[in-house]
Amino acid sequence: MTQEPMQVGVPPVLTVRAAAEQFLDSLESPNTVRAYRIAVLRTIERIDTTEGPHRERPLATLTSAEVGHALESLWAKASVNTWNARRAAVGAWLRWCDDQGWPCPTVPRQLRRATPPLLPVAAVSAAALDALTSRTDVHLREKTLWWMIFETCSHPRELLAVDIETLELPERRCPAPGRSGEHAAARAVAWGPRTAALLPLLIGDRTRGPLFVTHRRGRRSRVLPSTDVSPETGRARLSYNQARHVLETVTDGRGAGWKLHNLRHSGLAHLAASGCEVSDLMVKAGPIRPTRLGRYLSAATAALEMPSSTPPPREFTHRLTG
């Protein structure tokens, strides 16, 4: 019996499946592993990865065309989010293989990430907001915050980060901290007559510290940065989750009421309906892509035609917010 000579120093052929398993083993997050495993292994199954009986196909023989065909046949008709997720997972696998120095294909360039359609925003009419803030069970703090979001068209988090000493009350403006971290550049925001009338009442005798604060002093066990505590009252800066919870509760009570960002969107929609130039709308909105302004333009007419009714008063207590 003739024995084949042993090949010394020749590394084993890396198969498609072995490369996939090594990639998945390199991931740390269980959720990522679960999602990527679905995308990568189903793509491999769709491709003919066999090379004769009981032989796995080498990774180096895989082509971009095969990868693209598998992706399209599996998920071309799926939702935008599913397509993007599966495409990204397979792309991450192939890039990882390339980083290891293994010959491998890429996701075809023509298979681009899909852009989800921009849905019209849900606008709230000024009359509806006026009716809501006229209710006696709504606190002055909420009335001020809601009108300030509506009139400045600012992100709620920007306004919650505002301090009293930065307000320019006669000019109806203030710098709003950026949303990208503490080093983000501030931008000037300006409000209208409703906010201007409410701010002095909310501020009272306070001269510095957070503009929007909780109704009670913070727990001693909770350590907050000094910038997030009023030096005059000891009350903590109102958080986004607290503010969100109050609005959703007072307008519905089951977590499906108005949202804080609806007030910003509604303010932009009303400006668009009043004939505000696109350039001015972009300044008011802050950093925003011009293509996204269509959401507010399409909502403008609907916002003006919405009825002024608001949810009827219901049992509501500010103890929910602390």
TrEMBL record:
Q: Which SUPFAM superfamilies match?
A: DNA breaking-rejoining enzymes
Start and end of every Core-binding (CB) domain?
14-98
Sorted alphabetically, the Gene Ontology BP terms of this entry are:
DNA integration; DNA recombination
Q: Which InterPro entries match?
A: CB, DNA_brk_join_enz, Integrase-like_cat_sf, Integrase_recombinase_N
The entry lists its GO molecular-function terms as: DNA binding
The answer to whether the entry has keyword Nucleotide-binding is no
Q: Which UniProt keywords apply?
A: DNA recombination, DNA-binding
Protein name (Swiss-Prot/TrEMBL): Site-specific integrase
Instruction: Give the originating organism.
Output: Nocardia yunnanensis
For this protein's source organism, the top of the classification is: Bacteria, Bacillati, Actinomycetota, Actinomycetes, Mycobacteriales
